[in-house]
Amino acid sequence: MRNLLAATLALTLLGYGLASAQAAPPQAQAPKAAPTQAAPKTPQKPPAAKPAVPGPVVPGPVVPTEPGFTIGTSDVLGILVWREPDMSGDVSVRLDGKISLPLIRDIEAAGLTPNELADRIQTAMREFVTDASVTVVVRQMNSRRVFITGEVARPGAYSLASSMTVMQLIAVAGGLNEFAAAKNISILRVEAGKPKTFPFDYKNVANGKKPAQNIVLKSGDTVVVPER
Fold first, then answer.
1. SS3 188
2. Looking only at Cα atoms, what is the longest distance across the chain?
3. Do the strands 98-101 and 222-225 form a parallel or antiparallel pair, or are they unpaired?
4. How do residues 126-146 score in pLDDT, each as one tens digit?
5. Range(s) of the domain holding residue 175
6. How many Å apart are CA 76 and CA 90, to the nearest integer?
7. Average pLDDT for 41-69
């Protein structure tokens, strides 16, 4: 009897413990902390570009000239004024031998070397620009030309930028054609109002013979290459 009561009491206590365990509310878990967001980075400005220092840049084509070259009518010149782009530019020498520039208007150019003209422009501009520095270059040399006609690949007028011989002009003109009378070429020149003619034998000159015939051309000379 005692054993039965003891067993009953044990079962009762066990059931009460299970009920208490089920009735106890679950412990609340502490909420997880939200991840900390990094502060947005302030965009950094790129370093300011250093101002470009003007240099002696000569845009466009420049015709090389021989020492002592003098400017003539119809020549195209590039006037470059240091740090003054509005006063720089290309100008053509008029038939009266003058050019026109901003501020200083007309100035004589024909008969001067590029350096002499640059000095004159520089002196005239210093009334308006205290530190004016001027450079003059030749863009097109139209006042000094030589001509070649007849049996060559490209007959026509050619600028006489520097000393040029008859053989060199023929080469610039593309060489002789198949039917050119190479031994009977002539150079026509006018000196002191009188016409002169100089013979030129292409084959002999090319072979090192008669080198004196390969004369240096002057402005206005015409090389005539006849057909055989």
1. strand
2. 166
3. unpaired
4. 888 888 899 999 999 899 999
5. 145-225
6. 7
7. 60
